[in-house]
Amino acid sequence: MSEHVWKPHVVVAAIIERDGQFLLVEEHTEFGLRFNQPAGHLEEGESLLDAVRREVFEETAHHFEPEALVGVYRWRHPQKPERTYLRFSFTGRVTGFDASAALDHGIVRALWLSAGEIEALRARHRSPLILDCIHDYQLGRRYPLDLIRDYPDAPEVRRAP
């Protein structure tokens, strides 16, 4: 009898506002072209903060410095009930842009849109988390980054031969 081991997919996302507009990406998915915040999976050995910095750069060519946690969201994909996401959404500031950087595979473009424009595109959102995160951001939800405790990986223990 095989035992199923469940684990959530840990992802990070960035809620980045500039002059009343939010940075989104348009990307290819198995359900067609969809919109999302710059977001992606936490990689092994990576801190949540390093992951969100990396994902923002890979998907938008913008350098990002997280300043606060907006929220933590658990969402089960309705078309893939075996897939549950645990999303850590951060806000912060853009610290630079590299026009020569290639965007991640599958990303069509990065674009700045108003909250109203994002709402109007709801049918093409990758998940309902997009608007929920923006609404929480607009409500002023900000949690200090020191809420997150990251313990570095322990060095390998060397054993005597």
Structure description:
This protein has a four-stranded mixed sheet, with helices on both faces. Strands 2, 3, 4 and 8 form a four-stranded antiparallel sheet that branches. The N and C termini lie far apart (38 Å). With 161 residues, it is an alpha+beta fold. The relative contact order is 0.24. Helix content is 18%, strand content 39%. The longest helix is centred in the middle third of the chain and has 13 residues, at 48-60. The chain is built from three helices and eight strands; from the N terminus they run βββββαβββαα. It is globular, with a radius of gyration of 17 Å. It has helices spanning 48-60, 115-120, 129-138; strands spanning 9-15, 17-18, 21-29, 32-36, 39-41, 62-76, 84-97, 107-114. It has a single domain, classed as Nucleoside Triphosphate Pyrophosphohydrolase, CATH 3.90.79.10. The mean pLDDT is 92.
Series of H and E elements = EEEEEHEEEHH
Strand order of the biggest β-sheet: 5-1-7-6
Number of domains: 1
Overall strand count: 8
What amount of the residues lies in strands? 35-45%
The CATH architecture name reads Alpha-Beta Complex
- What Rg is obtained from the alpha carbons, in whole angstroms? 17 Å
Ordered list of secondary-structure elements with their pairings:
Layout: E1 9-15, E2 17-18, E3 21-29, E4 32-36, E5 39-41, H1 48-60, E6 62-76, E7 84-97, E8 107-114, H2 115-120, H3 129-138
Parallel strand pairs: 1-7
Antiparallel strand pairs: 1-5, 2-3, 3-4, 3-8, 6-7
